[in-house]
Amino acid sequence: MNSRLNAAKFLDQLKQSPNIDRAGMILVHNGIVRSFSRDGNPVSAVEVSANEERLAEILDEARKRPGIVAVEAKVQQGRLEVGDDLMLLGVAGDIRENVIKTLEETLNKIKAEVTTKKEIR
Questions:
Q1: Which residue segment(s) compose the domain that 85 sits in?
Q2: Global confidence as pTM
Q3: E strand segments, the chain
Q4: 29: Cα separation from own chain's centroid
């Protein structure tokens, strides 16, 4: 297992946002490579690529949402083994309704429009 993303450091950086004093909640999604696909087939690794330009656009959109004070994401690209960190997404905001909704919608956009994965069986 080669986890190259550091969730603790990522969270610390998110807390350094200039407006963090307006946040009452931070959610962090830590996606990792699992040993099976959505259809139940075994997976030994994945090849991941990301459209960094589209990722930046999505994060900028999320930062403009009501109550949101910080949004950051990192996507690990290349060959990742089972258990490796694949993506970190953090959202800081005023109240849980704004933060949860923003994290969910931003995550879904990133999965649909930014990352591509090829499973290695």
A1: 7-120
A2: 0.94
A3: 25-32, 45-50, 68-75, 78-81, 85-93, 115-120
A4: 6
